[in-house]
Amino acid sequence: MTKKTSHILLWVYAVGFIVYLLAPLAVMAGAAFNNDKFPSVMPWKGFTWRWFDELYHDVYIWQYSQNTLWVALTVVALAVPIGTAGAILVNSLKGRSRSLLYAAMISPILTPGAVIGISTLIFWSKFSVPAGLHLSILGQTSFIAAYVMLMVLARLQSFDAGLEEAALDLGASHWQTLRRVLLPHLYPAIGAGALLAFFQSVENFNITKFTRGASNTLTVYIGSKARSGASPSINALATILIGVTIVGAIGYEVWRRRKAARLALLD
Question: 142 and 108 in contact (C-beta within 8 Å)?
Fold first, then answer.
């Protein structure tokens, strides 16, 4: 196989892979503008904004969106410090104890969400704690904190432990060393972990389904609507979320490039 043929095949594969990923999103977004009660793009019955208007007047969507946002932010507030502390602890240990603690902390990732949800519900019922969004927060935190731990732990591998020793030798306390030496190095991983935790919570279905009680979140609501026949207003919501994601990604990339350019000028 020649170099030119390999290059062509690589481009064909890359284009096919991107189309495979984006085509369902394009179809879903197109259904949000199709004047048909069934969420589809074929047959096309004309362009309309009616599904966005229906979404705007759907009180359940707004109520469940608020619930979802509250749960996600609370999960971030819990999972980030727990995961960060766990990563620091695992990194400080050696030998078998480190392996055992590491395995125990990542085990929730390997456990099916339905199992975590049922286990959370059963465990807290023994203490007469009723189901509700507070249990959803606890259940989600139990496995999302592990994702944060993995991201922070990966960042710790590039940290020079000699900096901590130097700070302590110069008279800094352990708290000052943590706050002024270690945490600044970990901030990128902590920020990425917080973002991951937020989106993991927003999209969580299984744990929330078993622990939510009489409350509801946006993901569970959409799942229930999909089983009974989803309205194209759900497509309108998904289109808005995709748009926000794209704008956010572009904004971050512009900020990153400008920051890199400023640093290059300083060098």
Answer: yes
CA distance 73 to 23: 31
Q: Which residues pair with 208 in a beta bridge?
A: none
Domain spanning 60-230, CATH class: mainly alpha
The per-residue pLDDT string of the chain (267 residues; one tens digit each, 9 = 90 and over) reads 677 777 788 888 888 888 888 888 888 888 788 877 777 777 777 788 888 888 888 888 888 888 899 999 999 999 999 999 888 888 887 878 888 888 888 888 888 888 888 888 888 888 888 888 889 999 899 889 999 999 888 888 887 777 777 777 677 777 877 777 777 888 888 888 888 899 888 888 888 888 888 888 888 887 777 666 667 778 888 888 888 888 888 887 888 788 778 877 776
Residue linked to tokens 């744990």: 207
Which has the closest alpha carbon to 210: 107, 157, 264, 138? 138
Tokens of 35: 């004047």
Of residues 222, 195, 196, the one with CA closest to residue 109:
196
Phi and psi angles of residue 46, each rounded to the nearest 5 degrees, phi first: 110, 150
In the chain, which segments carry CATH 1.10.3720.10? 60-230
pTM, full prediction: 0.80
